[in-house]
Write a structure and sequence with these properties.
The protein is elongated and about 85 Å long. The protein is an alpha+beta fold. The protein contains twelve helices and 20 strands.
Length: 424
Amino acid sequence: MSPGRPARTIPGKDFSLSESQSSRAVQQVAHLAELRRVHEAFAWFRSHARQLQELQLQVTAIPAPPWGEAPRSDWLQQRFAELMLSDVHRDEIGNVFAIRPGNDPKAPYIALSAHLDTVFPAGTEISVRRDGSKLYGPGVSDNSSGIVALLAIAAAMRAAVVPNRAPIVFIGNVGEEGEGDLRGMRHIFQQPKWSANIASLVVLDGAGTDTIIAEGLGSRRYEVTIRGHGGHSWSDFGVANPIVGLARVIERFTRTPVPALPKTTYNIGIISGGTSVNSIPESATMRVDTRSASVEELDKLERALHEAVDHVIPELTGRKREELLTAEVRIIGNRPAADLPADSQLLKAIRAVDEHLNIVAKVQRASTDANIPLSLGREAIAIGAGGTGGGAHTIHEWYDPTGRDLGLKRILLLTLALAGVSGE
């Protein structure tokens, strides 16, 4: 998730707390913020601002294409080990874990996560630089800023010896972007060790402090391939053309009406096929992205896509072999839509933290790693890591760390509000 991804304020939802609930939560956060050790952690953020920038440039320079996050997993595992965290390890698909033990051995984990992967394919030139107050590089904001925030929270708590009551698990996960299809977070919540023992998940994704992703935007993605006999543009003229078939499917599918509420969208993002301008192609492929807050609307779009294919193929297919076209529709991504209840403890806590820090944040909907636990009925949100960013998902991406410490204070106070502090 990044500022450049679809996100919207949720109409018709009341996320307000009662006056008494709000007052108690804000008082708890204010008490935490007054603790000497928490003040020392806040000071660590300011005194190590330059070091955090250097870490951000380091991790951005490590390519992490979809399904190729291993070098970045290695890097993060080493950083966790240097912070003397417990049980530092990687799982079989590359997710990286580290635990800060709590004083209550029976308490469930509070989890902080940041995705390791970027949208940039293998072979993309990764050039990082500093220019004035800004850092530049593909993925420098989405999600190097989240990764660095993980390390900053762990380091500041260690330096200030903050005595958290519940254990905290820090997670660098793979497979959030694109066709990764949230595979890292799916894998984590399929493991009983984690699914049964994580009370709340706070996803750190991108820059900023002005949003709370409390609801997961559902999405389904498809690959549509049309195949034919192929041939020469002159001598085989008249042979059924898969690209023509694909074009007609697109034309028909994109006439599908979608509602404004719940907001529902579709996009043809990739088209490929053919070998030369004077060859009738043997195949043509497109990739389609559909998104909605409603499972029912996603179902309607899926039916519309299949109906478009089923209508067009018979129109273009003749009796002869060279006139034959076939089609395959394959789902390549499925992110569940889900809602965080308005009365959840996690939402109360982040609202109280924001009130204490004078942050005005909107509850929004987007597709993030939080979709997975939310779809399982667990408490999860995604928030930014502070600072500002732009150019997300382009090679011109940038991050400005000015004000990062506000985002880190927000994350730390939220973590402590959930985990509790012992002996204070």
